[in-house]
Amino acid sequence: MYPKSPRSRRVAVLAVAAALLVGCQRGTSTGAGPSPTEPARPGCPTDLARAEAATAYAEKPHTMWHGPALGPRATSGKDIVYVAQTMTNPGVAGAAKGVQEAAKVIGWNVRVIDGQGTPAGIQAAFSQAIALRPSGIVLGGFDPGLTSQQVAKATAEHLPLIGWHAVAAPGPSKHPALFTNITTRVEDVAKISADWIIAHSHGHAGVVLFTDASIPFAKNKSDLIRKELATCSGVHLLAQENIPLSDTSSRAPQEVSSLLSRFPDTWTHSVAINDVYFADAAPALRAARRKGAGVPFNIGAGDGDPSAFQRINSRQFQTATVPEPFSQQGWQILDEFNRAFSGGPASGYVAPVHIATAANSGGATTWDPPGYRAVYRRIWGR
């Protein structure tokens, strides 16, 4: 073999340097992304290994209860009112069902009042709840800022208030005054959703992110997802689609069709702040003759309603979701009320994130971790 000329050596060195520079760039562009003919990028081996470990742990079936094991015995004769944002929301309805199920065990009465999904309806429902003079009120899935007058009146009457997805963070809240708020941590949900994409794609993905920028909580979630996706140099954010949750049925199909035209080969994964985006994206993907179990692989960063599980289990345009344990959270709501009635602090428990897929759901249509019912019965003496 003949030795290379100085010019050949310089070309080779420049080529290696260019390849290394490409591999060091972070993938947060909202442009068209890499060309299909572009050489494979080095990816992100360190971040990929971390994402794979986190995803594998989140996908594990839970076999034990890791929540509170101790607490006060059940008080008796309590009446709880669950004010629902709207009972057509599967999450709100799922948590309400858990509250009703737990009430039968602990021996309390529960009444659900539907706010019908409008500010006026929620305010009227909350006012009606206060007029019933219950032992406590649940704020089921709505911003307490919508009902500031009612919250102030309930607080003045020393009625314990517990939120379900009422404010952004789990745990007690001073402003508004909630004994506790029950929800998963948005930081954890956002991170594990992005990590799933990194792991599922082996560090090479073109991603579309669906969000609703009009909702501060949703915008914060999507910002956190972007931040985590950017940790992997081989993952590129192709586009961020801002579609209000109220408009997904009318706008998502058209937007998805446009995305398929813009990124026919580079769009491999999607993540949405709520599973509903994929319910409305499915017709456009089907019309484009995309396979239900093929690209783009979709994950919902939160919720986990029955329709999402049905899409996942049937492999129809959704691959995974990070679900809320609605029933367990309903039981926790009553346990937290019992702690409030007994003069103790909130339990501080926050459900860990879980990733549901067709491989680990067992055909279920909700995420219902085991063990909590028996533990709460034991705590309450029931």
TrEMBL record:
A Gene Ontology cellular-component term: cell envelope
Signal sequence range: 1-31
Subcellular localization, as worded in the UniProt entry: Cell envelope
Keywords: Signal
GO molecular function: carbohydrate binding
Main location: other
Domain Periplasmic binding protein: 80-334
Top-level taxon: Bacteria
Family: Belongs to the bacterial solute-binding protein 2 family.
PANTHER family given in the database record: D-ALLOSE-BINDING PERIPLASMIC PROTEIN-RELATED
Name this polypeptide is given: Sugar ABC transporter substrate-binding protein
